[in-house]
Fold this protein.
Amino acid sequence: MGSAYDKFLTAVERAHVHLLRFLTLLLTASMWLMALSVGAAWYQWANHGFGAWPMIFLILFVLLYAAFQGLMVWLCLISRRLRIAKRVLVWTLLWIPLVNLGLALYVRGLTKQEIDHTLYKIELNDVRKERQICATRYPILLVHGVGFRDFHYFNYWGRIPRELVRNGARVYYGHQEAWGTIEDNACILRKKIFEIQKETGCGKVNIIAHSKGGLDSRYLISALGMEGSVASLTTICTPHRGSALADFLKVLPETLYRNVCRFIDWYFRRLGDGKPNAYAASRQLSCAYASGFNRLYGDKEGVYYQSYASLMKRGASSKLLCVPYWILKKLDGPNDGLVTKESAQWGVFRGVVTNNRLRGISHGDMIDLTREDYKGFDVKEFYVELAADLKKRGF
């Protein structure tokens, strides 16, 4: 079933590429023909006066201009490289002569990048099909962060799990609570690992944890005696030393803070949390709590610990995390919108994930939150390489 669905998705991707190519070709042709029709109309008018031929060429120009406008609208709708804000900007300026020609060149360039990237991914998947580079010795357990759950129709990890499975990985989800405490969530993870062991016959798992999920996993290993069942722990943007944002929230009046947390608990209880405790869970992200947590729960022998951080380069890079980014940058320093580089380091630090663009990579980008591709960073490829590296290390 999975293989058939992957073939279907590949066929859809190829059809999408063909459509983009066709529309881009028509757009380019319309631009050239518009220029030729205007030139021909001017030539006929200059040499023969205003007669039938100049009128015919002007009518042709108007028809081509209408086709050009329509093609731009459709390309903006279909191209994934254009976000909503850029689409609106293009459509707003599309009616301004000459400016729209510049926009057309811009959209055509983005479309070409999308075509090249999609074809590269299809070819890469074909080459990797038999290699199963993500077929790690132990199954992969994905552990989410705070404020989210592993919903079936809205995957916390976006397109990442399917890409891992496509390349041979066995992927499972932590299914811990969105606003559970570290202790409660660790108990859920322990139960999940037992289920995986029973189902697969494997004695261990590889945990890949994002954000607070890394703290849940460390407590699982160090406090619940599960080091024998975990081969490796990879934490991504986890606040191992806390986040100054959590300390900043302490300036809110206690009554207000508790009432907000009660509302969060009520809401997430309706979404499936059994024991939501937003007040305690958020306090566990403070720098003071992290300091005590690190003293109590050190690393265990036999478990390979590694970590990654990401960094945004400006607040405007993420609509969701722009305000937290500015606050944390003022309080502490460069960050991904929620966690600083220094706080994210634990075990073997594998480096900072970012790109060479102004945007950088946010806390949410590391889990494919927006399901978008960014220049200089392919989130699916990041996790494929991560799993492939675990496989090389014998995990």
In short: The longest strand covers residues 230-236. The mean pLDDT is 89. The longest helix spans residues 2-48. The chain has 14 helices and six strands.
